Each structure stands twice: as C-alpha cells, then as structure tokens.
Amino acid sequence: MEKIIRDNIFQQAIKWIYEASSMIREKMNDPLHIETKSNPNDLVTEIDQATEKFFVNKIRSTYPNHFILGEEGFGDSLDNLTGTVWIIDPIDGTTNFVHQKSNFAISIGIYYNGVGEIGLIYDVKRDVLYHAKKGEGAYKNKVKLTPLKRDLTLEKSIIGMNHFWLCHNRLVDEKVMEKFVRTVRGTRSYGSAALEFAYIAEGILDAYLTLNLAPWDIAAGIVIVNEVGGVTTTIDGESVHMLKQSPILTCNPAIQEIIIKNYITKGRKVT
Ligand code: IPD
Ligand code: CA
Ligand code: CA
Ligand code: CA
Questions:
Q1: Contact call for residues 228 and 148 (beta carbons, < 8 A)
Q2: Which residues surround ligand 4, an ion (CB under 5 A)?
Q3: pTM of the entire predicted model
Q4: What ipTM did this prediction achieve?
Q5: Do 9 and 84 touch, CB atoms closer than 8 A?
Q6: Domain annotation for the chain: domains and CATH numbers
Q7: Binding site membership of 192 for ligand 1 (Cβ less than 6 Å)
Q8: Which cofactors are required for activity (predicted)?
C-alpha cells in the first residue's frame, strides 16, 4: 500500500475511533440491552452493534471500494482478502464491558491484499491507543514501544491465558498445561484478546495463549506485535489464516519454541 494512502486511512481511522469511543462513553452507564449469541455467556449489546454500524457507515461513504469484516455482521461476507479490508471488533471484551465497564477495546486491523498494514487497539476506559503501521514501529499513545527483550526465559515469563486450558478441552492435555502454569512466573487473564495482544507489544505480558480466536480479535494485534519483534502463529506454530478461527499463540520470540515444543506439541490431542 502506498504510504500517502496508508497515512490518510490511518488518520481517518483514528478520528473515527475517538468519535465512536465518545458515543460509547456517553451511553455505557445507561441500562444496556444485552442479548446472547452462541451460548448464555456470549454477550452482545446494542452498543457493540451501533459501534460497528458507525464504522461501516463511515468506511462505506469515504472508501466505497474497501471491504469490511466485522464481528457483528454489518460488514461484508468475504472469502478472500484481496484489496483493502478493515477487520473490526467494535467492542473486544464485551463481558468486561457489561460487567466491569472497563478492560474493553475497539480493535481495527487494516489489511491490503492480506498483509496487515495498520493496527489500532483503543482502550476506551483508560484512553490509551496502541497503534502501528507496518514497518514504522508500534506506539502506546505517543510513546514508541521498544523491541521485546530477547534474553527472556519461560521461568521469568508472565503468560496470558484463561482457566479453560486447565479444564478438559479438545486441544491440549490439561496435565501438560498444569506443568506449564507451574513452570512460568505467573498467569493473567484479562478477558480482551485485543488488549492482551497490546500488552505483549508493550512487554508487560510475554505470551498470550488462547483456545479459539476470530480474525477480528487478532487482526490489529498482529500488526502491533510484529512491530516490536513479537510473533503470532497458531498454537502449533503455523501461520494464521485471517479468515478462520484458530487457537493462537502470540509471544516474545525467545519463548515461542519452548512453549510449542515442550508443552503444546507434547500435550496435543488428535482432533
Ligand atoms: C472475546 C474476548 C475474550 C476472548 C474471546 C473473544 P468479544 O471477544 O476477546 O477475551 O477470550 O475468545 O471472543 O466477544 O468480547 O469481542
Ligand atoms: Ca463477541
Ligand atoms: Ca473479540
Ligand atoms: Ca466484540
């Protein structure tokens, strides 16, 4: 993508993120209309939907030849990533949004012919924007994030993961994962994939391991994490398919191999 075009899209996207976040802040303390999707704990509110619609309307009127992939379904249904594609999670961390009114983010990844060009993750409550353009570094607000330290060991690592890894699951043996959590320095579970990616880029989490994520959960995060030398793959170390759901590992490269080889591969169940 040409720099001048990318810079224009980047500025426009940031402006819309701030506008959308003002609307979210205005309405978030009113009674919410909450519905469930695939199961009783899979929540969506009218604010998730209105926020996605807001971006879709802006993009369609400003860039009519761009495509949109959005969690709440107001975008396009795509079977390839040709052209410019906005991959949008209007509110990542809806459960946190509903229950805590914090720890949620707007996440937008902008891809050109399948390559991540722009990543934007905005922590609405804290007013922190993580952003990156491919090849130009990653930023937390105006501060440039530093490359991830390469002398890290697993024993000194903080890992983002949730309790489902220690429950019976279809992917990895729970006993192997028990050894894993006993080996690392600590685990954390923030409930927003986008923010967990941002924390990897910031170097305050060293790996984030997750059983199943969708493109809108990771599209922005991948671009931001890449810019500080972080790596994102499936939990088996394969490249991520941006139109499919997959189990994901994003981390400091110093601990990628040991996590995959000594834990995931050892405990992998045949699916
Ligand atoms: C969810 C959050 C959560 C992750 C789920 C996602 P949503 O996104 O990122 O942390 O564990 O897998 O679906 O539904 O709140 O946008
Ligand atoms: Ca959701
Ligand atoms: Ca999400
Ligand atoms: Ca969402």
A1: yes
A2: 71, 89, 91
A3: 0.97
A4: 0.98
A5: yes
A6: 3-144 (3.30.540.10), 154-267 (3.40.190.80)
A7: yes
A8: Mg(2+)
